[in-house]
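User: Second chain of the day. Same drill as before.
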Amino acid sequence: MSNRHSALRDLVNIKDFVRWSYSRFIQADLYYGHGTDNPWDEAVNLVLGALQLPLDFDKEFMDCKLTVDEKKRILKMLNERISKRTPLPYLLGKAWFMGLPFKVSRDTLIPRSPIMALLQDEFQPWLKQYPLNILDMCTGSGCLGITAALIFEDAKVDITDISLPALEIAKQNIALHQVEDSVEAIHSDMFDALTERKYDLIICNPPYVDADDYQSAPIEFHREPELALTSGFDGLDFTRKFLTQVADHLHDDGIIVYEVGNSEIALQEQFPEVPFMWVELEQGGNGVFVISKKDLTAHSF
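Assistant: Same format as last time:
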């Protein structure tokens, strides 16, 4: 008898399916890095998510019996997580960022940027004034720009992406978080559709994974859109072009908050004279820098 048939027959309640999923995940040797970091939390998230129950679901109800349809839904999701190495947020259609839910699809990266640590601190001490105009470039699901709009309630926020399918998801998240009055989603290849616009704060989590890192990454990362991950052999094709244009779109006291991950070393080697301020991230992660318009315009790219 297959695992599926025995599970349908022998497993009864929510608790049974969490334990069983946990065991299957351990056997499958999956990669965790898209919302959870261990097989137990992944099992809890999958089972509760498949049942459309909140993560703070009262543990007293973990003994509740499941219908056959509910069991089948869990098993289908679990099978795809294991057999295809599909990240769980894609199966659920939802990810969490800074405690907020965001719709995701396979056209968007799964929200996880370490820039969230700077958002929580309202970009202090780097911001010299309250940002009235904010840009979130390469927005994907829109998580960074929408969260910025919720934090800086008086700001106007543009969120842009080259991917129309990703931008459609971002628009859904704008509606989900009811920030239609302050956030505008714009289809743009870098600054092409932003000709006359200037900003006090530009946030960017661009494609930056170099060729070697991409090839050696766990299968789960290859399920995300390559367009949002890779940028040439050294991961810096987008960044080099961005740095030649961005100063024209910053107000005088404006700053950039930018993520390059492991391509941090390559960027420093190419521009050793540029005073990128690399942020020490308390919650982990690397490769986030801040730079002002003044420091940008002092150097030629």
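The chain has two domains: 3-92, 97-297.

User: Great, on to the next one.
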